[in-house]
Amino acid sequence: MSLIKESDIIQQDKLLTMGLQEKLMKNLNFFNHPSLGCFNLMTKNLVNNFTKTRQPILPLNMISRRDLTSSADLAVGTIDFQDHVDVRLHRNINPLEIRLQAAKDFNSVARKASMDGAYRGDYAYVDNQLHLSGIGTAIADRVLDDCIDVAIGSSVAYLKGVSALKAVQTHATKAVQIDSFLQLRKIFGDQGSAIKIAVAHSDVYYAYLAETFASKVGFQTLDLGFGIGVISTQGLAYLFIDHDSLKFQATGNKQRYYILGMQQNAVNVSIDQIDWANYTDSKKVAGISSGIRGQYDIGVALKGVRYKSTSGANPTKGILETSGNWLKTAAQDRATIGCLLEIGLA
């Protein structure tokens, strides 16, 4: 006599959430520890379209020489306040249909063909719960990609519009030079050590390695995996990721790249609770099928920078990546997220 257990398909919301949360907590490839705390991912209860805080701005002339023989009045400075605005983005996880039989059936012609004709009995059956948890993990990868896209796109957008935090390095015959990463810290001058990590396209990484060999200066990087490492001779950590904001075509179709130099706590990305909903199974498919859909919200906050709320709530990618939609709130440029180096062919 066999026991009847509760259907796996009913449990899918719990299992999906389990797989998704586990993946989000690890976030190994970019946020938190890999970026040395420059890009941080956290969970947060996002209530409104904008999170507004008031930050004090101290006058530059607040320190003066104290003259012990003078009776003159001291200049009175005014502490101003400026609004710091973080923006909230609303996201859908579009409807996905799960066909229970497809998740657990090893007897179809297609599966037999993919097993090179091997007999089905040679393979152990994996409980369907693992499939559902795996779906949650796969969805988490997409959510993380979305968060990375927001973090990098917003950072590049702001820094492109600040001439004091941007430098250009070009060469007639090559895109990357041996000192390209060093230039990031040069932008920050005597505060160069505040730049903890360089974020660049993988094209830049491989071109840099080629330069170290061609210049016979030795292998200067320590690869830690996941696109993370350290440029040992310059003491600068790097993180390489193929993001579209880091690679572009300049006038004359000449390839150019951006390298981000980031301070700690430069960008904080918050994920609100991910909500799931099941919808009824389709009658058009033989066997049990069920659909899921979800939604979540992202909050993005840049250090010393506010989103211009008049640009609209729940901005599109285009609005988010427009320089004019990010405004400095910090007293000094170097108190914001970091700097930007443009490199490429002249």
Could you walk me through the main structural features you see in this protein, from its secondary elements to its overall organization?
There is one protein chain. By secondary structure, this protein is of the alpha+beta class. The protein is 24% helix and 31% strand. The protein has seven helices and 16 strands. It has helices at 12-26, 100-104, 109-114, 128-160, 180-187, 202-214, 317-320, and strands at residues 39-43, 50-57, 80-99, 166-171, 197-200, 221-225, 228-231, 236-240, 247-250, 254-262, 267-271, 275-279, 289-302, 305-307, 326-328, 338-345. Strands 4, 5, 6, 7, 8, 9, 10 and 16 form an eight-stranded mixed β-sheet that branches. Strands 1, 2, 3, 11, 12 and 13 form a six-stranded mixed β-sheet that branches. A two-stranded antiparallel sheet has the order 14-15. A hairpin with a 3-residue loop joins strand 9 and strand 10. Helix 1 crosses helix 4. The N and C termini lie far apart (78 Å). Mean pLDDT is 75; it is low at 1-11, 106-113, 117-127 and 222-226.
